[in-house]
Amino acid sequence: MEIELWWLLVLPLFFGLGWLAARIDIRHLVSESRVLPRSYFAGLNFLLNEQPDRAIESFIEATRSDPQTTELQFALGNLFRRRGETDRAIQIHQALVKREDIKPELRLNARLELGQDYLKAGLLDRAEEVFVGLRNTALDMAALHHLLDIYQQEKEWAKAIEIARALPPDESHRAQKDIAQFLCELATHALAQSRFGDARPLLEDALATHRKCVRALVLMGDLHAAEQQWELAIEQWQRVEQQNPVYLALVAGRLADAYRKLGRERQGITLLKSYLERHTSLDLLDVVFKEELDTEGPAGALALVRDELRRNPTLLGLDKLLEAQMQTLPPESRTDSDLMKGIIHAHTRRVARYRCDTCGFKARQFHWRCPACGGWETYPPKRTEEFDLTP
Predict the structure, then answer these.
(1) CATH number, position 134
(2) CA–CA gap between residue 198 and residue 157 (Å, rounded)
(3) What is the pLDDT of residue 250?
(4) Position 132 in a domain
(5) How many Cα atoms occupy the beta-carbon half-sphere of 208 within 13 Å?
């Protein structure tokens, strides 16, 4: 291949430009390194040697000798907050907020970090004040989410509803679900105080906001039951099957009691048995077992549990089977059965827990809101043993 003459002229020029650019970069790095205090490099060295405490002290010294290192101050404040040293984080971010020589956007970020420090320290009133002050700024979205978290912790449900409704349309689906739960919290409080007139519009609003809110249906049935309108209560509780049959276990006992009040106890048990056939549930089995034991005696309860065990073999079901069998035996023959039941019952305690679908947190008690991750309706009334059952 022939070499063009102009290549010979251009190649030296390219080499010269590259050499010049390298020299400029090196000079820039050298000048920057001279500006940075020695304590900054000492801190980096301590970090590399896995000495975080000494590194922090070096970085603090760097910020004292050069107050202009705002990025380093932000990093230190976040590090202190993650380590649980919220008082030191607060001091750093308060100093940044008070500085007059930083850009407005950096001061806004410092205010946001300060609010998070207060939140981590449990100073919710101070955190709320900071985040309210950040409303309608460039950090409005972050302020909304933090305020929503604060109001849920403080159980200020009316304020939580106001903040959730201010979220943008792209978060409206999650917001609707949360708003319905906030309304249910207010309705629960009203029902506890027998303020039925206040509870009804709250529950209607919850269903209008999130039509699949099972909790609102349950509470609406409770409202009718409190007013002794048993037929209306039954109608609301039966709608749970269409919304989410997993929650039928929550209304099973209520349904049985309502049918009992109407003098149609057998009809109620038949309905619950049909639910159990269509929707396997250990909690539902427990309710139907007790109802069958009261109405048909040990023989009927034993037949019920035996059939259910054939369909879905579980330790909890076996525990119920032994309980029913023991009641059919004479007292002198129950010694071995008592021993067997005690062993089975000890094992069932490990699998008789509820589990959050989001974070996996387990507890013996059902919660509408997960105590660990704070998710609403992520904690179904479904025992951990049931997750292994095939449909």
Answers:
(1) 1.25.40.10
(2) 15
(3) 92
(4) yes
(5) 7
Closest Cα to residue 79, out of 59, 62, 107, 102?
59
Query: In whole angstroms, what is the distance from residue 273 CA to residue 288 CA?
Result: 7
Report the sign of the C-alpha dihedral through residues 98, 101, 104, 105, in that order: negative
Nearest Cα to Cα of residue 301 among 281, 341, 279, 273: 273
> What is the CB-side half-sphere exposure of residue 11 using CA atoms within 13 A?
6
Number of domains within the chain: 1
- Residue 226 carries which side chain, given as an amino acid letter? A
Which residues constitute the domain of residue 150?
Answer: 43-154
pLDDT value of residue 116: 94
Strands (DSSP E) found in the chain: 354-355, 362-363
Any residues with CB less than 8 A from the CB of 389 and at least 6 apart, and which? 280, 312, 314
Give the integer Cα–Cα distance in Å for 63 and 78. Answer: 15
**For residue range 296-343, what is the model confidence (pLDDT) as tens digits?**
887 887 788 788 777 877 767 777 777 776 766 666 555 656 666 666
Asked if 149 and 159 touch (Cβ cutoff 8 Å), the reply is no
Give the span between the Cα atoms of 185 and 162, in whole angstroms.
14
Which pLDDT score, from 0 to 100, does residue 4 have? 54
The CA distance from 217 to 247, in Å, is 11
- Sequence-separated (6 or more) residues with CB below 8 Å from residue 223: 187, 191, 196, 199, 200, 203
The answer as to whether 140 is a domain residue is yes
Instruction: With beta carbons less than 8 A apart as the criterion, state whether 126 and 156 touch.
Output: no
Tokens 């309608």 belong to residue: 136
Burial class (CB in 10 A: 0-12, 13-18, 19+), 287: buried
The residue with tokens 């760097």 is: 62
Q: Among 22-36, 175-189, 262-276, 306-320, where is mean pLDDT lowest?
A: 22-36
Q: Which residues contact 94 (CB under 8 A, 6 or more apart)?
A: 114
Q: Which residue has the tokens 């999130």?
A: 210
**Percent share of the chain, pLDDT over 70:** 71
Report if residue 105 sits inside a domain. Answer: yes
Instruction: Name the nearest CA neighbour of 385 among 289, 304, 317.
Output: 317
CA distance 122 to 115: 11
179 is a domain residue? no
